């Protein structure tokens, strides 16, 4: 029983001593040290107040051991035989041609609606001219975008086999 009263103050003294034993901590940019010689050499600043806990992690500086994934090279992929490649190319061409037909039909509809810059006015546009102007500008922008899409599809088709359309 007598020893229990002596152990409590000794434990508190040991904890306080451990906290004081840490000494000064210096901050050098994003790193910390408790070595005064290193701190003076690097011009580090002493940390004041509170405890410093440092968790070791991965190194940020340098690429030692770090691998950077490169884009796969064309030669590194699995080889496809000529027959299968021709089949893939034909399928891609068919898809592009159907997209071209859809885009051309969409362009024809937009041009018909645009009516050379004079689209037919819709209900609320008779009272609010700005709505009419905005819709006309939107139709024109859609026409321009569709024309660019068609040009891109045609370029892709021409690139595929060198034939012009």
UniProtKB/TrEMBL annotation:
<feature type="signal peptide">
    <location>
        <begin position="1"/>
        <end position="21"/>
    </location>
</feature>
<keyword id="KW-0732">Signal</keyword>
<protein>
    <submittedName>
        <fullName>Coiled-coil domain-containing protein 22</fullName>
    </submittedName>
</protein>
<feature type="compositionally biased region" description="Basic and acidic residues">
    <location>
        <begin position="81"/>
        <end position="90"/>
    </location>
</feature>
<feature type="region of interest" description="Disordered">
    <location>
        <begin position="64"/>
        <end position="90"/>
    </location>
</feature>
<keyword id="KW-0175">Coiled coil</keyword>
<feature type="coiled-coil region">
    <location>
        <begin position="93"/>
        <end position="156"/>
    </location>
</feature>
